[in-house]
Structure formats: structure tokens, C-alpha cells
Design a protein that fits this description.
This protein is of the alpha+beta class. The protein is built from one helix and eight strands. The longest helix is centred in the N-terminal third of the chain and has 24 residues, at about 1-25.
């Protein structure tokens, strides 16, 4: 009898415990509540590749704008014409002094331009004779001479051909600058002067 009672009590306890568990498992029903919305299954997330790097062009250099200035027109240069030097005075005749080294005889004579003048065996021909200009500091006289050696012809014989012994300028202030080189005679320029006027013919 006691055994039956114990079994009955166990059964009652077991039923009570199952009822309590069933009540806890079922959620309470709330009136006017919407049915639960089932969320759609989550789609798998695609992993996108990282974006390609963008290369930007280098920035253009900043050039400062310089103002355009028109070139200045060059001023006309005035070229001053140099003053022409004063020309030397040209004379019509040269005064020459000659020396015979053997006899020590000297002779001063006038030789007109372009006219041959004989002194013993020498023939002097003056091509030009000029004096220094007024603006020159030192006075000077120079003559361009051609001197030929031509001995006189002997009686009944033809004269020997002339031989040139000097050609060039002689300077009165510097006779040793360009002297006559001759074993017997010596000559040099003394001065220049205007040639004597020709006598009038009646």
C-alpha cells in the first residue's frame, strides 16, 4: 500500500515537472502581435579587388608672365668725319749739294722736277720734292731722286750706257738715312723751293 502511494507521488511529481517545462518552452501568446518575420538567408559577401592606383600627371610648372617690351629703336650714330691732314707742300725744284771725294770739290745746284741735271759723271733727275706741312712739329724737306752714272763720251766713241746708282727719297734733315752709295761722289738734298719762272719770250 505504501509502495503504491510512493509510485503515485512520483508520477504526480513527474507530471508537474513536465507541465512546468512545457509552459516555460512555449512563449506567451500576445494578442494582436504580428507573426514573426523570417529574415532571408544572408547572401555570401563577395570580396572585390582593391582599386587600381590612379597616376595623376605632374602639375605644369608655373611660368610667370613677363611683360613683352618692344625693343627700343637704336639711335642713329653720328660718325664724325675725321679732319683731313694738311698735305705737304709740293715744290717745283730741289736744291742738291754734291761732293767729289777725290778733289773735295762741292757744288750746290738746283734741279727742276723732271729735268735731268748733270754733275760730272752723275745725272740727277728729281721726281718730287715736298716740304713739311704747317701742322708738323719739325720742318723737313724730302726729294725723290733717280741718279744715273753716265761718264761723258770720249771723242770718236759712243757714250757708255747709263747705270742707275740711286733711286729713292733723300731727307734734308737726315742725310744719312738714305744716302748715295758711290765710291767717288756724294750728294744730298738741301731744300725744296719753287722753280724760277721761265723768261718771257718776245
Amino acid at each position: 500500500m505504501r509502495l503504491k502511494r510512493s509510485l503515485l507521488a512520483l508520477l504526480v511529481l513527474a507530471g508537474t515537472a513536465g507541465l512546468v517545462q512545457a509552459q516555460q518552452a512555449t512563449p506567451p501568446v500576445v494578442a494582436n502581435s504580428p507573426p514573426p518575420v523570417e529574415s532571408p538567408p544572408a547572401s555570401p559577401v563577395r570580396e572585390e579587388p582593391p582599386p587600381a592606383p590612379i597616376t595623376l600627371p605632374p602639375p605644369a610648372p608655373i611660368v610667370a608672365e613677363t611683360p613683352v617690351v618692344a625693343p627700343a629703336s637704336p639711335k642713329p650714330t653720328v660718325v664724325e668725319k675725321p679732319a683731313e691732314p694738311i698735305r705737304r707742300t709740293r715744290s717745283g725744284a730741289a736744291i742738291i749739294q754734291a761732293l767729289d771725294k777725290v778733289t773735295a770739290e762741292t757744288l750746290r745746284f738746283e734741279a727742276p722736277i723732271g729735268q735731268p741735271v748733270r754733275y760730272k759723271s752723275l745725272v740727277f733727275t728729281v721726281k718730287a720734292c715736298e716740304s713739311s706741312a704747317p701742322d708738323e712739329t719739325a720742318p723737313e724737306a724730302a726729294a725723290y731722286l733717280v741718279i744715273d752714272s753716265q761718264p761723258k763720251s770720249l771723242t770718236g766713241r759712243a757714250p757708255p750706257p747709263p747705270r742707275q746708282v740711286f733711286r729713292g727719297w733723300m731727307f734734308a734733315a737726315s742725310p744719312g738715312l738714305n744716302p748715295l752709295q758711290h765710291p767717288v761722289y756724294d750728294a744730298w738734298v738741301i731744300a725744296c723751293r719753287a722753280s724760277a719762272p721761265e723768261p718771257s719770250k718776245r
